[in-house]
Amino acid sequence: MALQMAWQQTHQQRRKAPLGLRNLGNTCYLNSVLQCLCYTPPLGQFCLSSQHSSRCKNWAVGGEKECPFCILERQITRCLSAEGSLEAPSKIYKCLTLFAESFRGGRQEDAHEFLRYVIDACHNTCLKLLSKSAAGKENASPGASGAKYGTVMREIFRGALLSQVKCLSCKGESNKTDEMMDISLDLFQSFSLNDALQPLLPA
User: Fold this and answer.
1) What is the model's pTM?
2) 3.90.70.10, 3.40.50.300, 3.40.50.12780, 3.70.10.10: CATH of 9-157
3) Beta bridge partners of 160
4) Using CA atoms, how far apart are residues 68 and 45, in angstroms rounded to an integer?
5) pLDDT digit string (tens) for 99-156?
């Protein structure tokens, strides 16, 4: 999956500052997450090219309800293409439970929790689409539909933490790699990302 890691020059010239999002009633958490997602270059570029919706056509969810990724794609496209300075994320707000079943409109919620719900909902939708697509191919290889990391959300947001133990006597090494989708960082007295990451790095 080829992702564009930087904005195209045409987009950089079009908008100098991020688009503001209207507060629809305790939606600060939702707005902050949407702005972060909108201005994540590979995701923004992916949505602007309509790569998901052009293949989905509500196929991934069997036509029973709307597709979370299609909704997010439309929202990001509007935010990145709008000529004004303010946008209301009404559609995502109305479909809040499609992303996070326990969330309700008008309530204050946690931004980090909502971000994980959005990523997971879009990732799962992509997996369903891959499964449907593979099932429609006569020569689909076993397991092709369940490619664990074969979705745009995992390609962008997944990371790996490598833990290494090295024997000082024999110089042997034992390595363990754990998948992660986020890192908890202590921001107190951290003046840069590198400062916040230092506790995770060996001395």
Assistant:
1) 0.81
2) 3.90.70.10
3) 179
4) 18
5) 999 999 999 999 999 999 999 999 999 998 888 777 766 444 444 444 454 799 999 9
